[in-house]
Amino acid sequence: MPIPYQIDHARRLVIATPSGAFTEQDILAYQTEVWSRPEVAGYDEIVDMTNVTEMKIVATEGVQMLAVLSARMDTDEARSRFAIVAPTDHHFGVGRMYEAYRNTQPAGTKAVGVFRSREEALRWLGK
Known about the structure:
The protein is α/β, with parallel strands linked by helices.
C-alpha cells in the first residue's frame, strides 16, 4: 500500500503517515518517489508510525538495506533531519536500529532521531 505523504514547502518538510502493514516494498517506493524529486532536496522529513499496525520488514537485513538506500539518496548540498515517530516499543526499537545503521553510512547527510510523539519530533526538527 502506498505511503501517504505531503510536502510542506513553507516549512521545507516532508510528512509521511503510513498506516496498516508497513512493508519494505512500500518504504522503497516512497523513498524513490519522494526523494528523487529535486524540489525536496535538503528538506527535513518526519515519518509518523502511529497508525502502523504491522511491520513486515526483515529485521536486520531489511533495515540495513533501507538505511543504505536512504543515505545514497541524500543531497550533499544541505544537511537535514529525519524524525521517526514511534510510539510503540517495537516501532521504537526498529527505528533506533535504522538510526544506528543510517548514522554509519558515509554518504548520509541527514541526522536521524526517533521519538515517542509527533510533538517531540517536530520540536527536534525545529518546526
